[in-house]
Amino acid sequence: MKTIIHKADTRGYADHGWLKSHHTFSFSSYQNAERMNFGKLRVLNDDVVQPKMGFGTHPHQNMEIISIPLKGALSHKDSMGNKRAIEVGEVQVMSAGTGLTHSEFNDSQTDTVNFLQLWIIPEQTGVAPNYEQRNFDVLESKNKLQTVVSPKDKLVDNALPISQQAYIYRTDLEASKSVTLSPKDANNGFYVFIVDGAVEVEEHTLHTRDAIGVWDVEALVVTATKNTEVIVIEVPMD
What we know:
Blueprint: E1 2-6, E2 12-15, E3 19-23, E4 41-49, E5 54-60, E6 64-71, E7 73-78, E8 83-87, E9 90-95, E10 100-105, E11 113-120, E12 130-135, E13 146-151, E14 160-162, E15 167-173, E16 178-181, E17 188-196, E18 198-201, E19 204-207, E20 211-215, E21 220-224, E22 228-236
Parallel strand pairs: 13-14
Antiparallel strand pairs: 1-20, 2-3, 3-4, 4-11, 5-10, 6-9, 6-11, 7-8, 7-10, 9-12, 13-15, 15-22, 16-21, 17-20, 17-22, 18-19, 18-21
């Protein structure tokens, strides 16, 4: 088993006024040769957008982009004709493929929006762009793993499809409760991100916004030491 620890206070940080962003991996002005990716997970940004502000229309190509709101609602508009708000409890996926443009905006007059954006390197380039979002019942993540994203050729339950052999899980653990992670493929690793709370993983104690990457493992137990929300990203390591 191999592990890597990323504590919350080691992430890159950018304050643009309208946007405050923590970067787990190298992104934009934050460049760290030792923090380029975890397997096929290329970006994990923790963004806070101020009221009445947002990202103007910008392009993406050949990347799987997943957005997970943690607080507030983010309005989305793209070149495929989609125009929707993404709210807490929902997950959004975009397969940028051959190319698309989109914008994201906080329509609230008073409240900030906090969301996670993940980029996963696709297994195939040049695919047709795709957009989907879905609300996931929080009860289905209570003390168990809820699959919210899975490969488009191996869709799990109501998970959203992406063009990579990767999975994203959510779990809301009560204190002392555990979940066991078993990789779908021996080449896969787990990136465990603590949204809020505290857990123990392989004798490591992790707190809010800390993360641990684990690979070359047959099973991994995550145990909450208090009520905790966790996101797990399972990705190919090469």
